[in-house]
Amino acid sequence: MRLAVIPARGGSKRIPRKNIRPFAGRPMISYSIAAAIESALFDRIIVSTDDAEIAEVARAYGAETPFVRSPELSDDYVGTIPVVADAIRWENEHHHPVDDVCCIYATAPFVQVADLRRGLDILHRTGAEFAFTITDYPAPIQRALRLNADDRLEMFEPEQFASRSQDLEEAWHDAGQFYWGKASAWLSGQPLFGPHAAPIKLPRYRVQDIDTPDDWQRAELLFKVQTL
């Protein structure tokens, strides 16, 4: 079977209640649930949460909340992989063996159905263990700057000062939207980033981290422009 897991714990610190805070008129988590439903890819769509209010909102928008996430998997330091693996183990024990799993972040309002479908195709076609969304950096990371202890500027790679931007290697980063993976890969605990993962490339204008109030405002503006 094919499973969607949407992690949504209740203890967000920087933006309180972020997972269900209204975003462009709807709870943030509703966008991830809606994309998963519309894609018609999944036998079950599970929200993994420790929070009763989040669970209620998730069910109202069509997801299932068949278990309460344990406190051990709900603090600030638990990563995505053990949370998804926990949902897979629950499903394997209580229903049907899981084959493919997509972890969709609850704070991914830019996720698109076509990308979810493309991601599954990439996972199967490439034979990778994982496939996840990435986008390119807007400027060469080899020419990045840091502030030193004297509040002066230094290059991370001073040897690249004279290099032309077009001659430097392109760099990519995690787009933070969703992660396809084989159930066995999630359960093994192997890291997502590495040669066993295939890329799902997204344009930069459809990628926005939402970790601060400024991020939130920028994301809503981008969302409104893209949905005009």
Automatic annotation (TrEMBL):
Keywords: Nucleotidyltransferase, Transferase
Transferase in keyword set: yes
Its EC number(s): 2.7.7.81
Nucleotidyltransferase is among the record's keywords: yes
Protein known as: Pseudaminic acid cytidylyltransferase
Organism superkingdom: Bacteria
GO molecular function annotations of the record: N-acylneuraminate cytidylyltransferase activity
Top EC group: transferase
Lineage of source species: Bacteria, Pseudomonadati, Pseudomonadota, Alphaproteobacteria, Sphingomonadales
Pfam families (alphabetical): CTP_transf_3 (PF02348)
